[in-house]
Design a protein that fits this description.
There is one protein chain. This protein has about 450 residues and is an alpha+beta fold. It contains 8 helices and 24 strands. It is flat, with a radius of gyration of 36 Å.
Length: about 450
């Protein structure tokens, strides 16, 4: 039998024995199974075939991943090149809102310098550096000084923020809180030139202030974009001075996490662009750029309340940045430049809602608890104090903050509002004359904050 086998093959013999009983006779049958074992050549051929198949599959996976990476990189670099190509030489110009009075003053017309309008070589890692280099000369350091002296001194320095140039004739945009209560404001340009600034006006409603400087050298205003075109997922970058001059003109990069985000900052609700680019103290008032180098927002690093928990405690937003859309900021800037102020109706009172569960728990009425009262503001003059609970305004039940604030915003400065409120088990009424938030001030009456005795 071995002679019938190929000389390169072996036979593996394995006997199988079966026995059974037939009456008194026992039968036994043994069967031998012959199994042919593949030779070494067959094994090698099989291994080679599977190796080729594995390499082929791996190549397909690698190519797919490589293509995906190139697509992502194109989104970061190529898209900016496309946008830059679509509008070469475009002049970003501030356009007044419809039905607003125009002015002959060419104060907020932005005239981007020729260098900035060149098409950027958006390839590789140089794209962000090119954008930074073309933008940084329009960013400034804003110093808030507690005394007005001939020269700025560190002993008088109350705070530092960021600002940016919006016109060749020296108008600068920043946050109102950056220059709040300043006796003098000094500006440091990127080339280290330091000059005293004039405060044209500020608006606490949008947290926007306009400054003006006069220098001998040419100023390079930043190009103003259109914040209405910003979309979630867009890449953005910011320039500012986190922690002050030590880290001045720092660039940070991120993406838009949301647009039209309603956020309360220091008791004032506005709609912001939400970003994940790092925004720290010192960045306030600085520009937020789109990837084509246009300013689309004004960054704010103030305390941000994202919402309140089930107990009414404010929830702060951590690891997020918020930027006021540039369209809104420029509308405010235009009014400040032309009129010196923007009237914002208000009563100088901040409130927090008392829901049904809390009202039952503490045996107090539902309504709006007075959290703070501004000293010498309309609310203070009418007799309101921290921990009072407003239950009605002009006959309308006070149930939520937004409705109350919106109602006051629709009032004109000088209008009156009838308030019914609860204090220590008794109800009272008062008439409040609506004032201008920009002239009311910010000092908290007796430094008193309400809510603690009711679990806030």
């Amino acid at each position: 039998m071995n002679s019938n086998l190929n000389e390169h093959e072996e036979k593996e013999k394995k006997p199988i024995t079966v026995s059974w009983q037939d009456g008194d006779t026992t039968h036994v049958q043994t069967t031998v199974i012959h199994k042919r074992v593949p030779s070494a050549g067959v094994i090698l051929l099989t291994a080679f075939t599977f190796t080729v198949i594995g390499v082929f599959i791996a190549s397909i996976v690698f190519f797919a991943r490589f293509t995906e990476i190139k697509t992502i990189m194109s989104a970061i670099t190529g898209s900016a090149e496309t946008r830059a190509t679509q509008s070469p030489g475009h002049e970003a110009e501030f356009t007044p809102a419809p039905n607003e009075p125009t002015s002959n003053m060419p104060l907020v017309t932005v005239e981007p310098n020729e260098k900035r309008n060149q098409q950027l070589p958006m390839t590789g890692s140089s794209s962000l550096s090119e954008l930074y280099d073309n933008s940084v000369d329009g960013v400034v350091i804003v110093e808030n000084h507690s005394r007005d002296t001939q020269k700025p001194t560190d002993s008088n320095l109350a705070g530092i923020g960021t600002g940016f140039i919006i016109s060749k004739d020296g108008y600068i945009l920043t946050n109102a809180h950056v220059v709040s209560d300043a006796k003098a404001v000094w500006i440091t340009l990127h080339d280290s030139t330091k000059v005293k600034a004039e405060l044209i006006g500020s608006d606490v409603g949008t947290d926007i202030a306009v400054l003006k400087i006069s220098v001998n050298n040419e100023l390079l205003p930043l190009p103003i974009g259109d914040s209405s075109t910003v979309k979630t997922g867009d890449f953005v970058f910011a320039i500012g001075h986190p922690t002050g001059e030590e880290l001045s003109f720092t660039a940070t990069f991120g993406m838009v996490g949301a647009v039209d985000r309603a956020i309360v900052i220091d008791g004032v609700r506005n709609h912001f662009i939400q970003i994940d680019a790092a925004i720290n103290p010192g960045n306030s008032g600085g520009p937020l750029f789109s990837m084509d180098g246009n300013v689309i927002g004004v960054n704010s690093a103030k305390t941000v309340t994202a919402s309140v928990d089930e107990y009414g405690q404010p929830i702060s937003a951590e690891g997020l940045g918020f930027s006021l859309p540039i369209n809104e900021a420029m509308r405010t800037a235009k009014q400040l430049i032309e009129n010196g102020s923007v009237q914002r109706p208000g009563i100088g009172v901040s409130v927090v809602a008392v829901d049904e569960a809390r009202a039952e728990k503490y045996n107090i009425p539902q309504g709006l608890l007075v959290y703070t009262v501004t000293k010498d503001g309309p609310g203070h003059k009418a007799g309101l104090y921290a921990d009072d609970i407003i239950t009605e305004y002009d006959g309308t039940a006070a149930t939520d903050n937004d409705s109350f604030v919106d109602y006051l915003r629709r009032k004109a400065v000088g209008d009156t509002v009838k308030i019914r409120y609860w204090r220590d088990g008794e109800y009272y009424e008062c008439i409040i004359t609506v004032g201008d938030l920009n002239s009311i001030g910010s000092e908290i009456l007796d430094d008193a904050y309400g809510g603690s005795k009711f679990g806030f």
